[in-house]
């Protein structure tokens, strides 16, 4: 019986369970960091009146989204999604492909759908990083994501 290293996926966890765990980690990370962003914006005294604090608010939200992405590695390790570093790096890349290819057109004004898309991106990254998933499925998925990106960029 071999000992599982920290980069091998847990054989007792199916790819679907890995995807669900990754989505849950993304939700928790987004909820915590965006809650922090909201609190910081409120502490600055920013209200919905005019454009007074818009620059600060955008900067705070960007930094908190970056914090959410960086904290994903630790959350994924806690949730036993291995290799956590690969999923943590691939998740934002998948999201960018989706955002430029599909989300910008259909979901631009709906922040809730963006959260769902981020969760889906980390789920997809967890499945793509699982060596038990066939190479054909991985390449087909990446091809679809790139096609969405090209279609999204072509409309500009």
Secondary structure tally: strands: 0
Query: Are there runs of 5+ residues with pLDDT below 50, and where?
Result: 1-5
Q: Based on helices, strands and strand pairing, what is the structural class?
A: mainly alpha
Sheet of most strands: none
List the helices and strands and how they pair.
Elements: H1 15-43, H2 54-78, H3 84-106, H4 111-128, H5 135-154
Helix pairs in contact: 1-2, 1-4, 2-3, 3-4, 3-5
Brief summary:
The protein has 156 residues and is mainly alpha-helical. The protein has helices at residues 15-43, 54-78, 84-106, 111-128, 135-154.
Give keywords.
disordered N terminus; 156 residues; mainly alpha
Overall description:
- With 156 residues, this protein is mainly α.
- It is 74% helix and 0% strand.
- The model is unreliable at 1-5 (pLDDT under 50).
């Amino acid at each position: 019986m071999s000992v599982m290293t920290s980069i091998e996926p847990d054989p007792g966890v199916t790819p679907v369970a890995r995807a669900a765990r990754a989505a849950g980690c993304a939700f928790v990370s987004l909820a915590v960091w965006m809650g922090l962003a909201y609190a910081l914006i409120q502490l600055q005294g920013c209200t919905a009146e005019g454009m007074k604090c818009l620059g600060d608010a955008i900067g705070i939200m960007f930094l908190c989204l970056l914090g959410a992405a960086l904290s994903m590695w630790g959350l994924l390790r806690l949730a036993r999604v291995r290799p956590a570093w690969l999923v943590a790096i691939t998740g934002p890349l998948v999201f960018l492909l989706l955002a430029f290819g599909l989300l910008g057109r259909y979901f631009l004004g709906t922040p809730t759908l963006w959260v769902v898309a981020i969760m889906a991106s980390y789920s997809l990254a967890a499945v793509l990083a699982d060596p038990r998933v066939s190479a054909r499925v991985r390449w087909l998925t990446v091809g679809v994501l790139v096609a969405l990106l090209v279609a999204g960029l072509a409309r500009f």
